[in-house]
Structure formats: structure tokens, C-alpha cells
Amino acid sequence: MFSFDLLLDAVVIGVLLGCFYGAVSLGLSVSFGLLDVPHVAHPAFLVLASYAVYFLNEHYAVDPLVAGLLITPVFFLLGLVAYRLYYETFEKRGSDAAVRGIAFFFGVAFIIEVLIILQFGVDQRSVTADYIGRAWRLGDIRIPYRLLVAFAVATALTVLLTLYLSRTFMGRAIRAVAQDQEALRLMGANPIKIKQWAFGIATAVLGIAGALLIIVAPVDPTLDRAYIGRTFCVVVMAGLGSMGGTLVAAIILGVAETIVLTMFGASWAPAISFAMLLGVLAVRPQGLFGRRS
Prior knowledge:
74% helix; two-stranded antiparallel ribbon; 293 residues; 11 helices; mainly alpha; ABC transporter involved in vitamin B12 uptake, BtuC; transmembrane transporter activity; 3% strand; membrane; ABC_transp_permease
């Protein structure tokens, strides 16, 4: 029987799980929300980051969070290259770039998945750290430390990205390029270079997010498929480009998933993100917070 205690437990775990979803969606909030790049390979880059963290942890005993920080510059450069390829191949050719770009990023995601399988096989991989496998008890509620880590890191990432986009010249330029590229060009800025820089930041964030992904649960090469619906649901529900909205929308999704998991079982939980995405598109297409200016 579904009791109040079970509901409270589901809500608490759902909030923490939602913060994790927020962390893995922040990069997409920049690339898709602000830049209008159909980055369906976002979850594949996320899983790739997890395997990079696994490699450093397994072979060099590097703490997963430290490993995530170490690979962040590499993923920033990877993002610069990925956007440049997308721009030269599709974006500068015309208005149908978004449609063609979806095929491009699906291809990138497939290549990443194949490369991971060739290097690591199809088995699940996990990392070790002092805080993995331990939990903090709050009354009758058992809260895994790995979710508390995800909560803290997601909050920090959201604050840092919000400050960067609102307080720095490049951050304001990134927001401006999402609204009027011609006006930005008249001011002497290069919109393409700004978008490339922003896409690099969106990919760099995945270094930390990938560390959280493998801290929360073991990963396998096909895990990206489970996060396509979740990440796009969070970004669209938040309102394209809203960093704070991304975290709030992710918490809503996390709580909804855990309640459904508790009441109806694990088989129903993955469908929640798609149901919520369709509901938001039908009722409030601009998202809960609208597109940030």
C-alpha cells in the first residue's frame, strides 16, 4: 500500500535525482536552448565522458569528480571541433540545417557508441570512491551519498553557468546570438565564433556530468538512448536556454519518475519523460519559464 512515508521518501529521492538530471541537461540547455543546434548526440557525449572517467579511475585511481574536472578541457576542445564540422557541413548552407543536422548528430552518436564498444566492450562499467555505496539516514529515509554529490554539483554548475551567461561579456554575447545574429555582427562580433565557443562550453560541462552519471549508477555503451528523452524533456519543459529553469524542470521530472516508480514499478518510469514532454508541448510550448533573454 502506498503510504505517506513512501511518498515522502519518493519526493526526497526525486528531488536529488532531479538535480542529477539537471546536471546532465545543462549542456543541452546551452547547445539546443540558446544556439538552436539539434544536438541529439548530447547523451552520447555524456556516456563518452563517463567512460573517460572510468578509465582514469580504473587505471590511475583518480577520484571520479577529479577525473571529470581533468577531462573538461578535452571535451571543450571536442565541442569546438564538433560545432565547426556541423557549421561547415550544414548550418551555413541554409535554413534546412536543423533537419540535416539531426542526421549529422545521430551519426556522431552512433560512431561514439561503436567506438566505446570497440574499446570497452558491452559490459557495464562502474567507478570506486569513498562516497559510493554509502548513505545518510534522515529518520526513516536512506539517502545515498552519490545523490547528495549530484545535488551539490548540479547546484554549483547551475549557479556558475548562470553567472557566466549574465555577468561576462562572452556570456551576454552568447545570449545575444540566440536572439539577433545580425545585430551582433553589426556590433563587430563574429556570431559563428561565439556559437562555437558556447558549444565548447556546453560540451565541457559534460565532463562533470559524465562523472556524475557513472557515480550515480554503472554505465554501458547504449545508455545514451535512455537519456535522449529525459534531457530534451527537461530543456523544453524549462524554456529554451533557462539555466535555473533547467534545474527546476529536472527536479519536477525526477520527483514524477520516483513517484511513478514507487506506485507502478520500474517499467513505467522511463515513459514519464516523453509523456511530460508531449504535455508541455501541447499546453505550454514556450516552457515553464519561457526563453530567456
